[in-house]
Amino acid sequence: MTHSDETVQMDQCWTNARLATMTGDGLGLIDDGVVAAKDGRIVYAGPAAGAPSGASRTTDCEGRLITPGLIDCHTHLVHAGSRANEWAMRLDGASYEEIARGGGGIVSTMRATRAASEAELVETALPRLDALIAEGVTTIEIKSGYGLDTANELKMLRAARALAAERRIRVEPTFLGAHALPPEYQGDSDAYIDLVVGEMIPTAAPLASAVDAFCEGIGFSPVQCERVFAAAEAHGLAVKLHAEQLSALHGSALAARHGALSADHLEHATDDDVRAMAAAGTVAVLLPGAYYFMRETKLPPVEAMRRHGARIAIATDCNPGTSPTTSLLLMLNMSATLFGLTVAEALRAVTVNAAAALGLSAEVGTLEAGKACDLAIWNAEGPAELVYRIGFNPLHQRIKDGQ
Q1: Lesser CB count within 10 Å: N end or C end of the chain?
Q2: Among residues 265, 346, 262, 268, which one has the least CA distance to residue 310?
Q3: Main-chain dihedrals φ then ψ at residue 44, nearest 5 degrees
Q4: What is the dihedral of CA 162, 165, 168, 171, to 10 degrees?
Q5: Which pLDDT belongs to residue 9?
Q6: Residues 6+ apart with CB under 8 A from 98
Q7: Which of 299, 178, 177, 183 is nearest to 245 (CA)?
Q8: Can you tell me the mean pLDDT for 32-59?
């Protein structure tokens, strides 16, 4: 926090607020708090007694709760088509494999995404993005991964970037070419990885912040994912990994060895995997929406994450097949009810730890001097309200870069 003195310059100030700064190890609560900003950056966040004065614009928050703007650090927000009909088929008894053999699954989303123009992808993504913005989200990660060829993967990344020009939100695009095997490469996954590392990553590098892959029996092997990591690193891109969702291939330990920003899903992660992630600073991103939607029964090893000190983030995993949700607030509740996270763990999971999962710890995720002035102002008496309620949005105002 910045203390009051004559050198502090500010152009706006939020007073009479309860702050959850997310600094330190907990929520960093300040009962009678003030946030002051200049040129879209926080210059003070702390007790009213030490706050600077002289802002040209002051907002009385009337006792409301202020948290950092929420961060959705794992989404597949850009895609075309719907898989609602496949969901209905599954409810009627069809297996995932039967649906996939009939042209469903990721391949059906791939076909719809390939057929859509960049403008159509932006248009269809905007309502999903708006739903998240309405819940206080100020930063979002958006993955490619439904094009599965160079031209369409680039189209998805351009669409993700275009969303940031349409709305006041920070978008972090992630290249996920190694998401699934397209039909034209069936039976030769190594040849497809050749394309990913030799052509896709070099051309996607200017559009992406990071590179992801799906390390799974129905995805790609650890050896193939390591090739993807090597290509990403050669082009100066951060890495992350879908790992341990359906089986224990130790992709999360592989991610840790490469200093990955995050490993995501993690239901089947072992104690050794978690220890490696904690030592490397790789964030454990849990996705309760996918766990719920897919009726999983294997819980992620939260207690091991606590014991080893691995940072936990949560996200919507917004996607048409396994987590068709656009509510990060619902994920807060699910992370508590399904995974046993505490209020403090859940809220840190969508702020300070989610920022770390995107490599943005210096920019967002806490209320402290020097960070972007991204705020969520809530009609709530305290932080527990945000995790406790289901289907209720208490957002009063969302502030992005001071506006």
Answers
A1: C
A2: 262
A3: -160, 135
A4: 40
A5: 86
A6: none
A7: 299
A8: 95
Alpha helix segments (H runs only) across 102-217: 106-115, 118-133, 150-166, 189-195, 201-204
Cα separation, 107 vs 181, in Å, equals 9
Closest-CA residue to 38 (of 10, 59, 6): 10
* pLDDT tens per residue across span 135-160: 999 999 999 999 999 999 999 999 99
Residue with tokens 């995790």: 387
CB proximity list for 133: less than 8 A, separation 6 or greater:
167, 169, 398
pLDDT tens-place string over residues 300-330: 999 999 999 999 999 999 999 999 999 999 9
Q: Which residues contact 94 (CB under 8 A, 6 or more apart)?
A: none
| Alpha carbons 72 and 77: distance in angstroms, whole number | 11
Buried b / exposed e across 54-84, counting CB within 10 Å, b at 16+? Answer: ebeeebebeebbbbbbbbbbbbbbbbbbebe
Q: Where are the beta strands (DSSP E) in 315-378?
A: 375-378
- What is the DSSP code (8-state) at residue 4? P
Total number of residues shown for the chain: 403
